[in-house]
Write a structure and sequence with these properties.
The chain is mainly alpha-helical and 170 residues long. It has a single domain, classed as Up-down Bundle (Ferritin). The chain is 75% helix and 0% strand. One of its GO terms (biological process) is intracellular iron ion homeostasis.
Length: 170
Amino acid sequence: MLNEKLEEALNEQINAELYSAYLYQAMGAYFANKGLAGFATWMDLQTDEEMTHARKIYDYVNERGGRVILEAIDKPKSDWESNLEVFEEALAHEEKITAKINDLVTLANEEQDYATNSFLQWFVDEQVEEEDSVGDVVDKLRMVGESTQGIFMMDEKLGSRTAAADTTAE
């Protein structure tokens, strides 16, 4: 059974993951509007990943006898100055989510809830991949700068992204 502190913190994380999905969907819409279908596809897949993260936590709370309470999701930003700014914001957001996951692990340890700690380790590992993936795009966007050819090449590459297989045991 989840204690009240962890239940509340996990509910907050569900909201953070849903906001992440909403933010990435806004970023995808921005790119679609600019005619960058590959960038938009990358963000659409990121949206799906964040929804999966929210669902994992949702299911876990229910499995542990807690109660999921969904709160309002903040409106995300919808306009940026450049493609690079979008991905820099995405990277900063992932770093914020990593900090929130780390705080959850700390709380699980303080509460001596070893099952929740174990559950959260998947998210700890996932955030390493998330930051690396977004950081790689930031690095490449910095290299190509305002090069139209570079942006089009990146659009093609980002459009080839496929959904990651879920490797967690159910």
